[in-house]
Amino acid sequence: MADDLYDAPGVKELFKELWTKSPLDAEGAAWLLRITQPWSYLLIGFKRGEASHVNIGKAPPGVVAQLHTHPTKLDPKPSTRDNDGGKGDWGAAVKLGLPVYVLSIWAIWKVMPNEKEATIVQVAKDWL
User: Fold this and answer.
1) Left if phi > 0, otherwise alpha if psi is -120 to 50, otherwise beta: which for 9?
2) CA distances from 96 to 60, 72, 74 (A)
3) How far apart are CA 50 and CA 28, in angstroms?
4) What are phi and psi of 111, to 5 degrees?
5) What is the pLDDT of residues 1-55, one digit of tens each?
6) Digit-coded pLDDT (tens) for 95-123
7) Burial 42-52, CB ≥16 within 10 A → b, else e
8) Distances (CA, A) of 62 to 4, 7, 31, 48
9) What global pTM score does this model have?
10) Contact present, 47 and 54 (Cβ < 8 Å)
């Protein structure tokens, strides 16, 4: 379950920050931005979405991942389709060319644009 980005200094705290800022009944999302001087990470562009969708827009320069939550009433796993006929979290990863992390009460999942399966980065009992 090792993940270089999630395991980078300060990043786990940013995942927890997004989780705590997000509503219980809707998705919340933010970009994970890499700062090079001094080397660190920052959450930017927080958006509150709807019950099963959040549109965060285009990735700004320097962004290394999209993070978003799945509220308790949604499937905790990354989605493969959405209400607009798209491919859900998988389609977002491909469109962005970036990893998409899905945070839920059960686990943190990672979807890469070139993989066919999501991987569990962290189980919930170890991060909440």
Assistant:
1) beta
2) 11, 25, 23
3) 8
4) -115, 125
5) 678 999 999 999 999 999 999 888 888 999 999 998 888 999 988 887 777 667 7
6) 889 999 999 988 999 999 887 777 888 78
7) ebeebeebeeb
8) 17, 18, 10, 22
9) 0.89
10) yes
